[in-house]
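User: Structure please.
Assistant: Input sequence and predicted structure:
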Amino acid sequence: MSNNIDLKKGLDIPIKGAAAQKVVRTVIPEVVAIKPTDFKGLIPRLLVKEGDKVLAGSPVLADKQNPDILFTSPVSGTVKEIVRGDKRKLLAVLVETDSEQKKVDFGAKDADSLTKEEVKDLLLKSGLWGALIQRPYGVMADPSAEPKAIFVSSFSTAPLAPDTDFTLAGKAEYIQAGITALTKLTDGGVHLCINKATEAKSMFAKMDKAIIHGVSGKHPAGNVGVQISHISPIRKGEIVWTISPLFVAAIGQLVQTGKLDLLRKVAITGPAADDPAYVETLPGAPVKSLTASYEGVRYIGGDILTGEIIGKDGYLGFFQDQICLISEGTEREILGWAKPFRMNLHSSSKCYFSWLAPKKLYDMNTNLHGGPRAFVETKCFEDVTPMDIFPIYLIKACLAGDIDKMEKYGIYEVLPEDLALCDYVDPSKNDIQDIISKGIDLMIKEMA
């Protein structure tokens, strides 16, 4: 295993709207939403009813397949509404926040002295077990499974992504405690990947009890899946767990204080944002409490490549620490393909002369600049996928539903986010992430 990873392939998307490193306000919302749809593989069982009182850390949902996995409220308050969709599918539990916050006391502990079972029990009861993602397939981690290792990417290279050294500033002690606790869950150690460009000033480079890897390169260098493929690729029959540094800090804080605290800095970003900056709030907060209301703007929870369209009436997801605002592209351009002088449009293939201004940032919108068409086999997917797989053949195998070829070409190593750039560069305008997601769903169904 190498401790230095230098990636040559990839693409940084030059988009306007990065958040300034300042917190403009702290928002404790009047209502928060606990959304079972945030967790892939969860079959939720409701543990509360409307009118029930809950504390921050009180269980609200459980997994029907594994009742030990609980999902807890981030605030104390009263269950206001159970939101259901078609066929009574549970979409959200809305909790009305109390003016004075009270938290469940799980008991402060010393991370070094905890046993594997004590760490597991604490994460299951507090609701933080859901923060552990199991690969392959990107589902919730199975408490009965034995991962070969746990991987943490301390940085993101996604467009306009939050700076984790800023968002987690002052929490180095909690991050260290979280890493120490996580080492108890695997014999393969905790692999912590840091950005080589900021290594000198990053607090993550000073962490103990982790196997540290320096990573450099363009997006998707910050994707944990890309890092895993260069450190310890996932083979058939193997599993690994991954976790965001945001939740590593939350675990450490839970261990040291005994209280669940999910307060986070959320980056409000994007070309349509008036004042891109950070807002401190909780998961499940209403979007309209965090940002201004705009017309003709798409509200995305997460980054522009992999985020979820949540709308201005939606709620911040459990894993989300970014909201991106981007204008809906509704205009049509006549003979756009015949205009190579378009200096205000970015092209990854240098089709426009805008490539002569490599440092320019663009006011992008949602226009595709073309419609879906026949799947054309080109080298562009390989140029933006720094993994030892064949992306074009994997995509075709997923389209065909050919499990043998999906295994052969790397389905165990990827999640949709790892091929998100293929969406951006695809001349055929296909939804590559959706194709990979459906392939993964087929694997889960057929291989269970």
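The first strand starts at residue 4 and ends at 6.
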